[in-house]
Amino acid sequence: MDLKIKDKVAVVTAASRGLGRAAAEALAAEGVKLAICSRDRAAIDEAAGQIRKKFAVEVLSEVCDVSSKTGIEAFKDKVIEHFGTCHILFANAGGPPPGKVEEFAEADFRKALDLNLLSTINLVNAFLPFMKQQEWGRILASTSISVKQPIPTLALSNVSRAGVVAFIKSLSLDIAHLNISANVLAPGFIMTGRVKSLLQDRAQREGTTYEEALENVKNTIPAQKIGDPEDFGALCAFLASGYASYITGDTILIDGGMYKGIM
Ligand code: NAD
Predict the structure, then answer these.
(1) CA–CA separation, 191 vs 149, rounded Å?
(2) Structure pTM?
(3) Sequence ranges of the chain with CATH classification 3.40.50.720
(4) Which atom of ligand 1 is nearest to the CA of 186?
(5) Which atom number of ligand 1 is nearest to the Cα of residue 47?
(6) What pLDDT score was predicted for residue 69?
(7) pLDDT tens digits, one per residue of 204-222
(8) What residues line ligand 1, using a CB cutoff of 6 Å?
(9) 129 CA to middle of ligand 1, Å?
(10) For the chain, what is the largest distance between any 2 Cα atoms, rounded to a whole number of angstroms?
């Protein structure tokens, strides 16, 4: 199936590995040109090289810490200088450290808000004007199942991501008439470096092994397995596609049935 986005330009942040990398690869498989970033020069250049080799698409790789507004502005300048525009934005970042509410001070909450909420707002503010100009755009914000069902040991994540949903929903109302959609992705457990380190943290807290922590998590998931990053990437590519213009303002779970609510 041709997703009708060949030669569009996508900005994918925090893309050297994990979910960002999976989204970048799924878009590259559709012939989308990429601007990717992460904090580490060697890691992002290596990811770019591998994506170019595998998918034969143009990839711009830059260093950017998305917690920093000036960092995002500098990244945007490089993307626009190189590609002239942005059609698709996958706003992604690393996750804040695990822990319960009482384990964190105000400064920790501020840092988590910079990392997960303000990064999304600043990325949208940087790239939305180009989508408006061309009256075509797809904005995807990476969050977590925690926006629907908070995870007890991930207080910083629970708090900082809830605002992303409110921001994207509000934004979607203002831009839908310009053929620009804005949606939130809410993964449960997809196997990445982040999930491996969270499982290690759980094992430590529960006094179990990594393998036992993994089994315990799988038992909370009706599908009885951890998700595949490739499936996550494919969902991103579809939501960024020419066929997804009528899906906006939504929060889409990809969690093997882990969320237990009705709506
Ligand atoms: P990961 O640790 O495997 O990869 C994170 C990526 O983000 C890396 O490329 C890293 O270099 C980059 N990064 C980290 N901080 C950054 C920053 N400040 N600026 C720029 N790049 C930065 O994590 P992942 O599993 O791919 O998760 C991505 C996001 O999705 C995280 O916020 C995570 O908490 C969230 N999430 C993941 C899952 C999951 O199942 N994997 C579930 C829910 C939420």
Answers:
(1) 19
(2) 0.98
(3) 9-189+228-254
(4) 43
(5) 9
(6) 98
(7) 999 999 999 999 999 999 9
(8) 13-14, 16-20, 38-40, 64-67, 92-95, 115, 142, 144, 157, 187, 189-190, 192-195
(9) 26
(10) 55
Mean pLDDT of 140-147: 98
* Percent of the chain surpassing pLDDT 70: 100
Residue 179 banded pLDDT, cuts 50, 70, 90:
very high
Looking at the chain, the number of H-run helices and the number of E-run strands are 9, 7
Only one residue has tokens 């590519």, namely: 237
Using CA positions, which residue lies closest to atom 41 of ligand 1? Answer: 190
Ligand 1 center from residue 198 Cα (angstroms):
12
CA of residue 177 to ligand 1 center, whole Å: 31
Atom of ligand 1 nearest to the CA of 40: 11
Average pLDDT, whole number, for the chain?
98
166-177: burial string, b at 16+ Cβ within 10 Å, e else: ebbbebbeebee
97-130: pLDDT as tens digits: 999 999 999 999 999 999 999 999 999 999 999 9
9-189+228-254 has which fold? Answer: Rossmann fold (3.40.50)
137-142 β-sheet, strand order: 59-63, 33-38, 9-12, 88-91, 137-142, 180-187, 251-254
